[in-house]
Amino acid sequence: MNHAHSKLLTIALASACACSAATAQDARFGQVTASSDTWDRLTATGASITGACNASANDSVNDGVPYELYYIRTGDFSPILDIRVYSLEPAPLDFDPFIAVYCDSFDPNFPNTNLLHVDDDSAGYPNAHAFFPFAGIDPNSLYIAVVSSYSNFPQSQYGNFEISLGNGLYFSRRCLADFNDDGEVDFVDVSLFISLFTAMHPDADLNYDGSTDFVDISLFLSDYTAGCP
Predict the structure, then answer these.
(1) This prediction's pTM
(2) Per-residue pLDDT tens over the stretch 117-156
(3) Parallel/antiparallel/unpaired status of strands 81-87 and 42-48
(4) ∠ Cα 167 200 195 (to 5°)
(5) Which residue intervals of the chain bear CATH 2.60.120?
(6) CB contact set of 127 (below 8 Å; sequence gap of 6+)
(7) If I label 89, which of 30, 111, 183, 228 is the partner at 20 to 30 A Cα–Cα?
């Protein structure tokens, strides 16, 4: 973003006050369907989890498993990774959730790269819980949660679930400034952010601290200047 654009955005936001916003939602409903992307699923059995982005896990016998992914951040330094996935199907054979968590990026063809955690049944069969008390979640980093079924059998590979976050984690976008999720940052995103910010909308609370203020403006400007990867 050039200096003129930055100055224009700053001026446009200067008249907006620091206002209270609703608490960010920490749970979402999701669905794995036939149109979901697929990956070569790992297995939690025998995985090496260290709390850093150097975890490793073995390949499972289930390949081509449909998945959905979620971008996650934290507003403050948090030593705890805490992501739960609950099946909303009537029986475990209908959908058995599996979760893998990644640092920065996820490649379905190389699922061990940037791996932080994997889990299958730690929230009580069949529900998954990616939990580690010393993960050191960084507020300047992006994390990706990949949710799929344990198997790719026709009866159980698709299903509905709830994914919930704890200990200060919140759902985000890969690029904070890309408000229309088109992979680019431009004045459409500026316009959307200004509208949400002046309306005290929770989506403008980029650090999810419960208020829309100049910290959020700073985060938006920083991400807008950097552009989307």
Answers:
(1) 0.80
(2) 999 999 999 999 999 998 889 887 899 999 999 988 888 8
(3) unpaired
(4) 120
(5) 27-167
(6) 84, 85, 86, 87, 97, 121
(7) 111
